[in-house]
Specification:
Layout lengths: L1 E6 L3 H4 L7 E6 L2 H7 L5 E3 L5 H10 L5 E3 L10 H7 L2 E3 L6 H16 L2 H9 L17 E5 L3 H11 L4 E4 L23 E4 L13 H6 L5 E4 L8 H9 L5 E4 L19 E3 L11 H17 L15
Parallel strand pairs: 1-2, 1-3, 3-4, 4-5, 6-7, 6-8, 8-9, 9-10, 10-11
């Protein structure tokens, strides 16, 4: 029997489908997980808070495979897991559909001034003209990040007749190479960030990059807050160097009450809700986990597998 330590939150979706060779142990709290962790060969240690997940992973000295619903696991002790030879699967793609839809929503809401329409309704004011005049069709989008989420963003924006130019290492199919996009920022109306948080991407959008964007340029960030230098962004928005920033993620999270992003009219903050705007996340994760159990038992690769060196 293979001992698996799993969150009780996923139990109703997983337990009836577990193969006979798995011996499940369900935890309801950090304390229970820490007690069970040393014997776990398979672990699904997800909690709402990240620090306890790190503690549990460190305590799981016999762990062979760590599974998570989180796509970004840069907060976990990846080097330790690598030294122990642990295979890690993450939640890449689980929320890709809803996040891609969220990007379209944010862009349309900004282009049509929908926030002002909602405010007018609250005031019972009948507007005689649209507060937003922008059309997505024909505008150019620089897409940084072409993973599961980025690919879905690309196809959805192209359906609106937008010209989407991604960044990829090969530069194939009209894409820009990693060393080329900064010089081309002024070519684009929108810059969409869908990259993981790594040493390479943290702070990739700073004062220099913002200064190179068009005055009507809009920054859309559904990646991680730390890929943008927050102080530089606030300054650019205050001075109206760019038209707007549509931010599902910020640095820090949550924003403190007096953070300037709350008050800036050309900033929209959606509180990291894009991945939560759906009801199928746990079902998709459970289905993937059960499929991976079959692969694991057969000695086949589980997926999607996290690269412990790259962090994604």
């Amino acid at each position: 029997m293979t001992k698996a330590v799993l969150s009780a939150l996923i139990r109703p979706l997983v337990e009836p489908r577990l193969p006979e060779w798995v011996e499940p142990h369900w935890f309801m709290s950090k304390e229970q997980a820490l007690e069970m962790a040393p014997e776990a060969e398979i672990g699904w240690f997800d909690l709402n808070e990240k620090e306890p997940m790190v503690e549990i992973a460190k305590a799981a000295s016999n762990l062979k495979w760590l599974n998570s619903i989180y796509a970004g696991l840069d907060f976990m002790p990846l080097q330790l897991l690598k030294e122990r030879g642990v295979v890690v699967t993450n939640g890449v793609g689980i929320n890709a559909i809803t996040i891609a839809e969220y990007v379209v929503m944010l862009m349309l809401a900004h282009a049509k001034g929908y926030r002002d329409v909602v405010r007018a309704q609250a005031r019972k004011e009948w507007l005689l003209d649209s507060p937003g005049k922008r059309e997505l069709a024909g505008e150019r989008v620089l897409l940084l990040g072409l993973g599961a989420i980025g690919q879905l963003i690309k196809t959805r924006l192209e359906a609106f007749d937008m010209k989407v130019v991604p960044v990829r290492r090969s530069g194939a199919d009209g894409a820009l190479k990693p060393g080329e996009w900064r010089e081309r920022l002024s070519d684009f109306d929108w810059v969409v960030l869908a990259v993981p948080s790594t040493e390479e991407t943290r702070g990739m959008i700073g004062a220099m990059e913002l200064a190179r964007m068009r005055p009507n340029g809009v920054l859309v960030n559904i990646a991680r807050g730390d890929v943008v230098e927050q102080d530089a962004l606030v300054e650019a928005l205050k001075e109206k160097k760019i038209e707007a920033a549509l931010l599902d993620v910020t640095d820090p999270e949550p924003l403190h009450e007096d953070h300037p992003l709350w008050e800036l009219e050309n900033a929209q903050v959606t509180m990291h809700l894009s991945g939560r705007a759906q009801t199928k996340m746990f079902q998709r994760s459970a289905d993937r986990f059960i499929e991976n159990l079959g692969r694991w038992h057969a000695g086949e690769p589980v997926e999607p597998r996290l690269d412990l060196d790259l962090g994604y």
